[in-house]
Structures are given as structure tokens and as C-alpha cells.
UniProtKB/TrEMBL annotation:
This is Guanylate kinase. SMART domains: GuKc. InterPro entries: GK/Ca_channel_bsu, Guanylate_kin-like_dom, Guanylate_kinase, Guanylate_kinase_CS, P-loop_NTPase. Its main location: cytoplasm. The keyword ATP-binding applies. Belongs to the guanylate kinase family. Pfam families: Guanylate_kin. It is found in: Cytoplasm. Residues 6-184 form the Guanylate kinase-like domain.
Length: 206
């Protein structure tokens, strides 16, 4: 029997696109996915648990992990580090579970650099095209404002080039179904399945 390895799925997109909402709705439906637990240097808060809410580490330990390339991505907010530990992700994938990471665009690009075999999903705001058309067709905005808004839209669109899939978040339910379809299709990809079969054949045939 083929023991299939898990896949790292990274859900990302511009701020305010609804990543957290889609992720929560997805996890209500799909109990097989494992949410990637982050690591932080901030103190543990009342009611939180190590290995459930975060992995809590000292600043020295965290910085050592940065030096040893033990984080898929990290950032510093208000004097504390936050990041995705490589070992946790790799061990979970080896156990056959898919890992799901919801993250800002800059963090996703770091993950792609450190873990290119992940599957990167860009959550796209449905209002961008509408915004574009409205700005151009309205004709009441100042030229500078139209330009600034279109530049911001262009930047968001350009970020999609680093991703494997784009899901428009028009309705949460629909977006979740699309993400589920991506998960299923990735597990059926020829190159993934072929790799597993080849390992078995090599082991059996020596």
C-alpha cells in the first residue's frame, strides 16, 4: 500500500481579503487538514497552550533557528518574532497529513523560497475588477486617485505570479469548495503519485 506524504498548502493574499474566514470555514468541513502552528517569542497568555496556540521560545532560541534555517518564514511584530517552524511542518507531512498555512503575502513568498514544493493559493478580492471598472467609468475621481488605486490593484495582481492557484473570494462557501478541489487534485497529480509508485517498485525490485 502506498503511504502518501502530506502536502503543504499555503493560503495567502492581500490584507483584508478574508483569509482567516475562509480558513476557519474550511477547517469546519475538512478535519483531515492540520493547521500550521506558529512559533513566537511573546510570553504565553492565560488559557493558551504550548503546541496548541503557538510554540513558545526565547528570543535567543528563535534567533538560533533563523541562523540554522529552521523556519520556513518569520517576521518581527512589536518586538516579538513570529514564524513557521520547518521541523513541525516536515514531520506532519511525513506522517501523511496535509498542513495548511494561512499567511500574508510577504510570508508566503518566504515560504516559497524555503519550501518550493508547497502548493500556493492566492485568495483574490472579488471587488478588484469592480473597483477598476468603477474608478474608470465613474469619471469623478481625480486623476491622481484613479492612478493610485489602479497601481495598488496592479501590485496585488502581480503578486499572483508567485502562486499556483487563484481563488476569488466572492462567497466564502464557494471559495472553500474551490480550495477543497485544489487539495483533491494535488493528491491526484501524476508526478506525486508516480514518485510514490517508483519508491515502492525500487524497494521491491531492489
Amino acid at each position: 500500500m502506498i503511504k502518501e506524504k502530506g502536502i503543504l498548502f499555503v493560503l495567502s493574499g492581500p490584507s483584508g481579503v478574508g483569509k482567516g474566514t475562509v480558513r476557519k470555514a474550511l477547517f469546519e468541513k475538512d478535519t483531515e487538514l492540520k493547521y500550521s502552528i506558529s512559533m513566537t517569542t511573546r510570553p504565553i497568555r492565560s488559557g493558551e497552550q504550548e503546541g496548541m496556540d503557538y510554540f513558545y521560545r526565547s528570543k535567543q532560541e528563535f534567533e538560533q533557528m533563523i541562523r540554522n534555517n529552521k523556519l520556513l518564514e518569520y517576521a518581527e511584530y512589536v518586538g516579538n518574532y513570529y514564524g513557521t517552524p520547518r521541523d513541525y511542518v516536515e514531520e506532519t507531512l511525513e506522517s501523511g497529513k496535509d498542513v495548511f498555512l494561512e499567511i500574508e503575502v510577504q510570508g508566503a513568498l518566504q515560504v516559497k523560497e524555503n519550501f518550493p514544493e508547497g502548493v500556493f493559493i492566492f485568495l483574490f478580492p472579488p471587488s478588484l475588477d469592480e473597483l477598476k471598472n468603477r474608478i474608470i467609468n465613474r469619471g469623478t475621481e481625480t486623476e491622481d486617485l484613479v492612478r493610485n488605486r489602479l497601481l495598488a490593484a496592479k501590485e496585488e495582481i502581480e503578486m499572483m505570479d508567485a502562486y499556483d492557484y487563484v481563488v476569488v473570494n466572492d462567497e466564502v462557501e464557494t471559495a472553500v469548495k474551490k480550495v477543497q478541489s485544489i487539495v483533491r487534485s494535488e493528491h491526484c497529480k501524476r508526478e506525486r503519485v508516480a514518485k510514490q509508485y517508483k519508491k515502492i517498485l525500487e524497494a521491491e525490485l531492489g
